[in-house]
Amino acid sequence: MAYFENVNQIKFEGPASTNPFAFKFYNPEEKIGGKTMEEYLRFGVAYWHTFVADGSDPFGAGTMIRPWDKYTGMDLAKARVEAAFEFFEKLGVPYFCFHDVDIAPEGSNLRETYQNLDTIVSMIKDYMKDSKTKLLWNTANNFTNPRFTHGAASSSNADIFAYSAAKVKKGLEIGKELGAENYVFWGGREGYETLLNTDLKLELDNLGRFYHMAVDYAKEIGFDAQFLIEPKPKEPTTHQYDFDVASGYAFLQKYGLQDHFKFNIEANHATLAGHTFEHELRYARINGMLGSVDANQGDTLLGWDTDEFPTDLYSTTLAMYEIIKNGGLGRGGLNFDAKVRRGSFDPEDLFHAHIAGMDSFAIGFKVAQKLVDDKVLDNVVEDRYQTYTEGIGLDIVEGRTDFHKLEDHALNLTEIKNKSGRTEKIKATINQYLLNAYAGK
Ligand code: XUL
Ligand code: CO
């Protein structure tokens, strides 16, 4: 059965096209910086937002019209697999991502949940045989069910720690079965509401223990996916343990996990942490920890995770700049952890949303590659830090100074000259690159 019968294969038609079901900028075969867009951008569809979410919010019921919703239970789970692979093929997207609960309903106990998962995983495996779409990552949802109210690996209840471990164990087995490139840990309830009832040290130590056991088990079963931590500062808990890349990296180093994990960086999580998307990407990149991206955007007027499809070209350009400077995302990709707005309830809107996101990253990729090729920002930075390439500056970076030597230098200074940072000039240049990109200049 076709679930999206009004939509045909989405093709690249170029910037002049007026066909809403066509890519204007994402041309999978086009080479940018020697790589095709398809192999470099590695787009992924998020199963939960696209095939499961119903558009409900804290003030209202679901709005989404989804042809598969006429089914329930395991029939619904199976219909979603059919719809998903039809969608992947029509969109021509190379990857998808899911949580365990997205693909199969939970049973009345863990054993029954496993059975449901096994049925759907073998169905997905069959569909993957005839499909170009691969699994970018899977993960365990250890946050929705009420049992996780006090956390999962950081729960105050040891039974929940064990239950969470069992779900991740199963997730690792599923990842191996389906050939996942990565395995994600987003600490949905790993955090706390109030210190008044919280043993902060025990919870963090337990989280460290949990991640070590996951690393050990993946090794035991020969699952070689890249492990990824996805930081988020708040929501659902007040204080999330994996707040941002900097705090996550400190955590990983403290518990000796830094060689086993990288980061999955989500744009809207970055802005919730008071950072820009590019800040988080840069922080991970300079530490060799940039693994994958949850591509979305927030709303600057709202203080929560709105998970919008990325359409801000300035942001996609600066994000792609970091990704290019990282030499790509390796086994990672650009997963659209993004949802259509509650009012965009037609099945077709799922296509419009993904087309918008893919085109926005294609533009960002083109502009960023040009910025890199022309050394626009490299030249700015090189000039700005020029004092570290000679004299006392070179001595500092090469470790030949101490406070005595620096004091001598400072006492002998007659004049200190700072240079302008030229922020506005740089931003104007980026605008010029953005606008010129499709004028063929
Ligand atoms: C929640 C979020 C999750 C993770 C996977 O904000 O981003 O969907 O990406 O659990
Ligand atoms: Co995410």
Keywords, separated by commas or semicolons:
binds D-xylulose, 16 helices, eight-stranded parallel barrel, 441 residues
Structure characterization notes:
Helix 6 (158-178) links the parallel strand 7 and strand 8. The chain is 46% helix and 11% strand. The relative contact order is 0.11. The chain has an eight-stranded parallel β-barrel with strand order 5-6-7-8-10-12-13-14, surrounded by four helices. A two-stranded parallel ribbon has the order 1-2. Strands 3-4 form a two-stranded antiparallel ribbon. The protein starts with 10 loop residues before the first strand and ends in a 5-residue tail after the last helix. It has helices at residues 37-41, 47-52, 73-91, 100-103, 110-129, 158-178, 200-221, 245-254, 267-272, 277-286, 313-325, 347-373, 376-384, 391-397, 403-411, 423-436; strands at 11-12, 22-23, 31-32, 35-36, 43-46, 95-99, 134-139, 182-185, 191-192, 226-229, 239-240, 261-266, 290-294, 334-336. Helix 3 (73-91) runs parallel beside helix 5. The chain is of the alpha/beta class. The mean pLDDT is 97. Bound molecules: D-xylulose and cobalt (II) ion.
- Overall pLDDT confidence: 97
* Poorly predicted ranges: none
- Classify the beta-strand content into a percent band: 5-15%
Task: Give the CA-based shape.
Answer: globular
User: What small-molecule ligands were found?
Assistant: D-xylulose, cobalt (II) ion
